[in-house]
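Researcher: Good morning. I'm working through a list of sequences from a screen, and I'd like to move beyond sequence-only analysis. For each chain I'm collecting a predicted structure so we can compare shapes side by side. This is the next one on the list. No need for commentary yet; just the structure.
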Amino acid sequence: MPAWFQQASGLLTGTPMSTKTPGRNKTSVRPDTIVLGVDDFGCQHVYRTATETIHVVEDGERVHVEHLGNRHADEWMAFVADRRGWSERNYGGGINGAITRAILP
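Model: Good morning. Structure tokens for this chain:
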């Protein structure tokens, strides 16, 4: 039986499971890079999940790097929406946002 199944089956049998979080390099589900969107000034915003940074790219050159620290990418999305606006938004809105982006051109 695979180790992950043994751990998951612990939920049903009451056997203790590991409390250690696996490292990103082992079982990361998120992609390394997520394109957040393009602001109203034509800059592309790219989220690097491995480094928790957002890179702003204008005319093919990186013009800004924002280190998120303990903040979430949603905060950056709101900041850009307030200060610059989004002409194309590829991130946020949960499942409803994903469905809307998939349906609408």
